[in-house]
From TrEMBL:
<dbReference type="InterPro" id="IPR036237">
    <property type="entry name" value="Xyl_isomerase-like_sf"/>
</dbReference>
<dbReference type="InterPro" id="IPR009308">
    <property type="entry name" value="Rhamnose_isomerase"/>
</dbReference>
<dbReference type="Pfam" id="PF06134">
    <property type="entry name" value="RhaA"/>
</dbReference>
<keyword id="KW-0963">Cytoplasm</keyword>
<keyword id="KW-0413">Isomerase</keyword>
<keyword id="KW-0464">Manganese</keyword>
<dbReference type="GO" id="GO:0016853">
    <property type="term" value="F:isomerase activity"/>
</dbReference>
<keyword id="KW-0684">Rhamnose metabolism</keyword>
<dbReference type="InterPro" id="IPR050337">
    <property type="entry name" value="L-rhamnose_isomerase"/>
</dbReference>
<protein>
    <submittedName>
        <fullName>L-rhamnose isomerase</fullName>
    </submittedName>
</protein>
<dbReference type="InterPro" id="IPR013457">
    <property type="entry name" value="Rhamnose_iso-rel"/>
</dbReference>
<keyword id="KW-0479">Metal-binding</keyword>
């Protein structure tokens, strides 16, 4: 069995935020599927998230999506989460579902539409003030489908002006993380299509504005780990949205499509010191579980991140540096691949048992009867899902 003692202090700090919407119903563009046991309220979503943390010890916070998770009393909601052993994390804004945002939100040519989007951002900050959340995450569906449809330069000016107003509302301990996505739903141009655009806007705003990197939001063949390394080097990587994709933004279980890519990403995260809590880089999931059961899907996801993080930490960086500096191409590559091919699962199982956690969280969940309980208890009512 591999010895994890050298990397245990770093593994102890690993925390992966789970998204509330992962526990609701989702599907394809053509159908949102109903499943037994799906939460009907945000409290039931939080209870499911707490179960993931109970079995893995890896998911101490849950991200909320406004207005999907809107409640009258966010203080009470925060107390409810803490009573289950977790906290409320990132607050995700939503300016992509209302009819008024058909032609854009923060980049709309009509100031009245931009102001409506700004009011929503301010509402999210108000939620953060109550819950103690650190990050406001902004993802925009803004863009155009046809050449000439919109003035791309003016839209960037409106975006900067809008983001500046949101930035000025942030508290001293709060941040804005700006997500990017290279296409969809806009197919000709997207207003925040890549890390460079997000970086340029956040750099202009100041230290409380950071980039959010979604691993599914890149063109095929993109070297995501290079972007990770660059943003850490520049001090602008605020958070991750972890998921997998085969074609476009599939939002599948992280590490399912290309575990080697996840390993490479986590190596650069570790190499850049971003696993140190002082670096303040938030690791989050952004996934939907269309076919598989949702809670096991989230358990599998956080375990995948933990496993690839452990492998990445096992890279002998001192020997690797020597091989790199000596121009030993194959030797350096072998050191990298040796770590990737190391089976850390038995050692992690032992590590979990030593901390009072189940050695096999997936099996423990299946044996717990929790799914059967919620299937019975959550009959009737309106199940949560996209747009609900």
């Amino acid at each position: 069995m591999v010895d994890l003692s050298r990397i245990t202090p770093t593994l102890e700090n690993l925390a992966i935020e789970v998204p509330s919407w992962a526990y609701g119903n989702s599907g394809t563009r053509f159908k949102v599927f109903q499943t037994p046991g799906t939460p009907r309220t945000v409290q039931e979503k939080i209870a499911d998230a707490a179960k993931v943390n109970e079995l893995t010890g890896l998911a101490p916070s849950v991200a909320l999506h406004i207005p999907w998770d809107k409640v009258e009393n966010y203080g009470a909601l925060s107390d409810f989460a803490q009573g289950l052993g977790i906290t409320l994390g990132t607050i995700n804004s939503n300016t992509f579902q209302d009819d008024i945002y058909k032609f854009g939100s923060l980049t709309h040519s009509d100031a009245a539409v931009r102001n409506k989007a700004l009011d929503h951002m301010y509402e999210c900050i108000d939620v953060m003030n109550v819950t103690g959340s650190q990050d406001l995450k902004i993802w925009l569906a803004d863009g155009t489908n046809y050449p000439g449809q919109g003035d791309m330069r003016s839209r960037q000016d409106w975006l900067h002006d809008s983001l500046q107003k949101v930035y000025e509302r942030l508290g001293d301990d709060q941040r804005m993380v700006l997500e990017y996505k290279f296409f969809e739903p806009a197919f000709y141009h997207t207003d925040v299509p890549d890390w460079g655009t997000s970086y340029a806007h956040t750099l202009a705003l100041g230290e409380k504005a950071m980039v959010c990197l979604d691993t599914g939001h890149h063109a095929p063949g993109t070297n995501i780990e290079f972007i990770v390394a660059q943003l850490i080097r520049l001090g602008k990587l605020g958070s991750f949205d972890f998921n997998s994709r085969f074609y476009a933004d599939d939002d599948l279980i992280v590490g399912a499509a290309d575990p080697f890519q996840l390993f490479r990403i986590m190596y650069e995260v570790a190499r850049g010191g971003a696993l140190d809590p002082a670096a303040n880089v938030a690791l989050m999931l952004d996934q939907c579980h269309n076919l598989e059961e949702k809670i096991p899907g989230q358990i599998r996801s956080v375990l995948n991140v933990q496993e690839m993080t452990a492998r990445a930490l096992l890279v002998d960086r001192e020997s690797l540096t020597k091989a790199q500096e000596a121009g030993d191409v194959l030797g350096a590559h072998a050191l990298f691949m040796d770590a990737f091919y190391t089976d850390v699962r038995p050692a992690l199982a032992q590590w979990r048992e030593s901390r009072g956690l189940p050695a096999d969280p997936m099996a423990a969940y299946a044996a717990s009867g929790y799914q059967e309980i919620i299937n019975a208890d959550r009959e009737g009512g309106q199940q949560a899902g996209w747009g609900a």
